[in-house]
Write a structure and sequence with these properties.
single chain; 446 residues; alpha/beta; Rossmann fold; GMP Synthetase, Chain A, domain 3; 11-stranded mixed sheet; 15 helices
Length: 446
């Protein structure tokens, strides 16, 4: 490795140290060690930790949040007696779910990407983010990541799509030693530039949307471009990792994929180990399967977030289905295993020029559209899209124009967008709503 890349790694490592000192305090190193010790502990110690954290959270929720104060029968209510927290509960009772013990100024507002077509607003606190990051650091090391080492990120960047690169984003990438390929806007030119740049800096790991990673791998395969980067591993997240995505990417990049499962509401939920089992993040959460037999019959995944005291998520129905395993993993780690994960998917849109637009781009654009209750965008052909919307009384013609313009701005000014106003958007047979659908691959009706 050239001296300049070694120097960059050392600089980035020092910057990571300074960042964590600022965010987590002088003892962040010992915090990370404690997190690792717990996640490497025996099953009995892990479950004892979870039980203690769960009791503290339930007591806090009962004493400080109006929603749970009314819901709990007693202060010592067992978690199994608490009804699951539904997304509609959060939309209807957001203020009552917030803890009175956490001042409004200490609440950090966040929102989902709207995988059901309607973004969900909620609050977290600084301790949640600190604990979440410690868990991410631990699990990402399974894939070979470490502070300061170069990483290629194939993810979505709105600023790149819209042509107004943010200097803060660029500075962050520099000190973190990150190299960015915008998964919202993949073109032959951007993928070739990324390949050429990675040939110079040799990333140690890749973090990517599965669908964007697959498109990048397909481009390299089609153009006989062979990465020689000595990757330690690839981390995928935010979408379903289909078997053909994994197979092609692992072949092209010559390394293993470590799939990560998480949600913006609750953080990192589980991650694959070297043996391919998905271990549950017991440091941050308590996971249940809403099923008569969670080890044989899949059911809804219920998440209790153990660290977010600003707005407790208790038995939150996240919208995915899964099944547990009682096997002992050959990797030696004793964290419980999520044997099966069902129901998460998205779509990649294609323009007439061959540009690939990740579906998450549209979701992020439509986060804050006033009057929009729910949407579904369907790319029928390269020239025609159907936008289904459910709206309320705050909807305006300006909101209508905004959404159409954003779609045409990404897919082409000549694309026809048919807006259909719906009373509701029916669920598919799978029961998992698709908020973006592209039919271009199959129809080819150009």
């Amino acid at each position: 490795m050239p001296i300049r890349w070694t120097t960059k790694k050392l600089m980035s490592k020092a910057a990571w140290h300074a960042y964590n000192m600022y965010r987590k305090g002088i003892n962040y190193g010992s915090q990370l060690s404690k997190t690792a010790a717990l996640l490497n502990a025996s099953r009995a110690d892990i479950l004892a930790f979870q039980k203690k954290q769960l009791e503290k959270l339930l007591r806090h929720a009962h004493l400080t949040t109006p929603y749970y104060r009314e819901l709990f029968k007693t202060e010592s209510t067992h978690i199994s007696q608490i009804p699951p927290l539904e997304k509609k509960n959060i939309r209807e009772q957001l203020d009552r779910l917030c803890s009175e013990a956490v001042p409004q100024g200490q609440r950090i507002k966040n929102a989902t990407g709207g995988s059901t077509g309607a973004p969900l607003t909620f609050y977290q606190d600084r301790n949640y983010w600190n604990q979440r990051n410690l868990s991410v650091y631990y699990f990402d090391q399974w894939a070979g990541w470490d502070f300061g080492e170069s990483q290629l990120i194939v993810w979505g960047a709105l600023s790149d799509v819209e042509g107004n690169g943010n200097w803060k984003h660029q500075l962050s990438n520099f000190w973190r030693n990150h190299y960015w390929l915008n998964g919202f806007h993949l073109t032959d030119a951007t993928m070739r530039r990324a390949f050429q740049q990675m040939d110079r800096c040799h990333p140690q790991t890749i973090l990517a949307y599965p669908s964007s990673l697959y498109q990048f791998a397909m481009y390299l395969f089609d153009n006989d471009l062979v990465p020689k980067w000595n990757l330690k591993g690839i981390i995928t997240s935010a979408e379903m990792l289909h078997s053909h995505y994994r197979s092609l990417a692992e072949t092209i990049f010559g390394t293993k994929i470590y799939n990560r499962y998480g949600g913006r509401e609750v953080g990192l939920i589980a991650m694959e180990c070297a043996e391919g089992r998905m271990h549950i993040n017991c440091h941050d959460l308590y996971l249940e399967i809403d099923s008569s037999d969670p080890y044989t019959i899949p059911g809804d995944i219920l998440i209790t977030q153990l660290n977010n005291y600003a707005m407790p998520f208790i038995r939150y129905r996240i919208g995915d289905m899964g099944r547990l395993s009682n096997e002992v993993c050959p990797c030696g780690n004793q964290l419980p295993i999520l044997a099966e994960l069902l129901g998460r998917s998205t779509a990649t849109f294609r323009t007439r020029a061959g540009t690939l637009i990740h579906a998450g781009y549209f979701t992020q654009q439509f986060y804050d559209v006033i009057g929009l209750v729910q949407f579904q965008l369907i790319q029928e052909t390269l020239k025609h899209c159907v936008l289904k919307v459910v709206v309320n009384t705050q909807w305006t013609e300006a909101a209508n124009r905004y959404m159409v313009q954003k779609i045409q701005g990404a897919l082409g000014a000549d694309v026809t967008v048919t807006v259909k106003f719906m009373k509701e958007i029916p669920l598919p047979a799978s029961g998992k709503r698709e908020f973006t659908i592209s039919k271009v691959e199959t129809s080819r009706n150009d």
